[in-house]
């Protein structure tokens, strides 16, 4: 194998698909994830033995695969507890991370927080029940957080005699409802998580279905174009000014390239100040500055001495974002304490903290009917379109264009709790 081939192979192997499975209670989410792990041989043997033991103890004939995803870890993030369990598995073709969000009423906020980095969402539908209010809610939330790919998994096909008519009716219902949502592509797959049909193996009871199995689809869906590769965005995390004599002129701007790309000599603009310069060097080994290396983390130097600090954003002069003190956003309220419109909150956006006010609630979305309602405040799990005013300028793109520079969280100053997650319109 040539060096190029081995580099290419490494690159292919590094490809990672993040997905979430959304379903109402008892639709079979845990069974499906368990089946996926089991049939793709991703479960470690010791895990399987312990599940077999538990299933036997409970007097079950078959191994209960939902036990594989039980025991959600509570995640503590800025003071709120989010029940999202991350599960990792790999096949020779791809690596996967599943964010498993529980289906109870805290669901909305869990999904909004767990799904914001997902490439794909699986919406489970019980074949006997068809498209329910909850299925609509899941599809709406997936489109709200901008998940590029959606799989509608029509589960429990064994309970409707693997009927093609039932499957096609559900597909028609779902596509009629979802045509107004900004979803890019929807894949429909009939399956039985319990019997194992069309999850990893095709089985022989769904012969009329000619599409891919779930795993085949997950392994092959094109995710290269999911992220913004056009606009160079570099929020500055740290300004590096070594105090040694030989380097006292050095100024490096450390951070993560969140999107796009840059080359030596490219014209850059520092925002919000608007000052311009050119890239002098791109240093890819931040270790030498005692900083842990994370993917895409770099240190940039520029040709001129400009006043740049943490929270500023370097962009390519030819690819400018919006700079404003007021913007519209969709927010999901996460805190138990409702929104207080009179209160100043902290808006955390990229590497910046700004003081801001939710100056107006344009409308609240009833996530069961998707209708817009008037509202004076927001309670936990509610979603609304709001206007936000900030004291200083904020540099952003719309969330539809850039999931990093288009998203923010709202923090309550006194308690330091995260109270909302937002996506800029
Ligand atoms: N017949 C049949 N039963 C299934 C299938 N998938 C899941 N089930 C059963 O449906 C019930 C619920 O499955 P779970 O996987 O626990 O459902 P869930 O959606 O994860 O439910 P929660 O964890 O409570 O949110 C269990 O009794 C499963 O055995 C299927 O394809 N066919």
From TrEMBL:
InterPro entries: CysN_GTP-bd, CysN_II, CysN_NoDQ_III, G_TR_CS, GTP-eEF1A_C, P-loop_NTPase, Small_GTP-bd, SO4_adenylTrfase_lsu. GO terms for biological process: sulfur compound metabolic process. The keyword Protein biosynthesis does not apply. Its EC number is 2.7.7.4. Keywords: ATP-binding, GTP-binding, Nucleotide-binding, Nucleotidyltransferase, Transferase. It is an enzyme of class 2 (transferase). One of its GO terms (molecular function) is GTP binding. It comes from the Bacteria. The keyword Transmembrane does not apply. PROSITE patterns: G_TR_1, G_TR_2. PANTHER family: TRANSLATION FACTOR (PTHR23115). This is sulfate adenylyltransferase. It comes from Nitrosomonas mobilis. The lineage of its organism: Bacteria, Pseudomonadati, Pseudomonadota, Betaproteobacteria, Nitrosomonadales. The gene is cysN.
